[in-house]
Amino acid sequence: MVKEILYTTAVDNNGNLIHIDNAEKGKNYYCPVCKNEFILRKSGKIGKGSRRPHFAHNQLTTNCTPETVLHYSFKKMIIDLLEKYQSENKKLVMNWNCNICNNKHSENLLEKVASIREEYNLKECQPDIALLDEKEKVFAVIEIVVTHKPEEHVLQYYTNNSIVLIQINLTSEEDLKKVEEKITNPDVVDFCLNSKCPNYGNYMIKRELICITKNCNICFRLKKACYVKINHVFGIKDSSDFDENEIEFFRSKGFNFKMRINKKTKERYATFICLNCMRIRSRYRKSRIF
């Protein structure tokens, strides 16, 4: 059974957002949305017949619902968390599965964030939170869903403008205690780094082919190797998951490798073959025949 959503956040006389757990009797509290006075309902009683601690309007305003206050409060708490991490120059690693190909991804959400805007006006829509790069371009948005998901024309706008949608679904006021957990494991991230995924081409992803030589771990002779440097909205990463064109290019340049699949993550990767070790093994096999 889904619990009824209650008013569990308020603002005090100083404009600070206060959770019901930290509210004290005798102090003034106000609704974060309509600004009307709140009454603190916190009896301390537990068990059958008792109601969870909450705030109540002294005079209810039209369209001010617990869902509206939950949405507003969570949004403010997310912004505070992002700004805290940004000011401390800390990584905020976001984990998700692509909703199309189911590939797992893990990226630093704040890698390219220059500024964070609330209800930023994009003319077509106003996302709850917009993430802007150093050129003042919106590259990702965070939409918080309590009752209404983004409309189809809004989703299409994000796709058409290469804006990554990060969606967080809230089901109860208990989610206010899981802000960091919810942003690091969002319900939807409309972005994928799997080059075979239909969603891959929707966003600005630059791939640079890098060719190197390195020592073989077995015979220590130099061998050819290569990788792809991927520049995307959440940063820059190196990968050996090549697409078919890259595989053809590297092999045409004399790189000897096999594509394998990680059993745990299901990600593809290339293992490079040392020609010297291959010749030694070939001579050994021939000698065994005779």
Quick overview of this protein structure:
The chain is elongated.
Question: What can you see in these coordinates?
Answer:
The protein has 290 residues and is α+β, with helices and mostly antiparallel strands. The chain has 3 domains: 1-64, no CATH class; 66-192, no CATH class; 205-289, no CATH class. Helix content is 21%, strand content 30%. The chain contains 5 helices and 17 strands. It has helices spanning 66-87, 152-160, 179-184, 244-252, 275-289, and strands at 9-11, 17-19, 29-30, 37-41, 54-57, 93-97, 104-108, 115-118, 129-132, 138-145, 164-169, 188-189, 206-215, 222-232, 235-239, 257-261, 268-272. The strands form 6 sheets. Strands 8-9-10-11-12 form a 5-stranded mixed beta sheet, with helices on both faces. α2 links the parallel β10 (138-145) and β11. The protein is elongated and about 85 Å long. The N and C termini lie far apart (75 Å).
What is the straight-line distance between the termini?
Answer: 75 Å
Return the domain count: 3
Query: Helices and strands, in N-to-C order?
Result: EEEEEHEEEEEHEHEEEEHEEH
Strand order of the largest sheet: 8-9-10-11-12
Number of helices: 5
**Structural class assignment:** alpha+beta
Largest sheet: 5 strands, mixed
Helix content: 10-25%
Q: Per the principal axes of the C-alpha atoms, what is the gross shape?
A: elongated
How many β strands by DSSP? 17
- Low-confidence stretches at least 5 residues in length (pLDDT < 50)? none
Strand content: 25-35%
Report the C-alpha radius of gyration, rounded. Answer: 26 Å
Oligomerization:
single chain
Mean pLDDT: 88
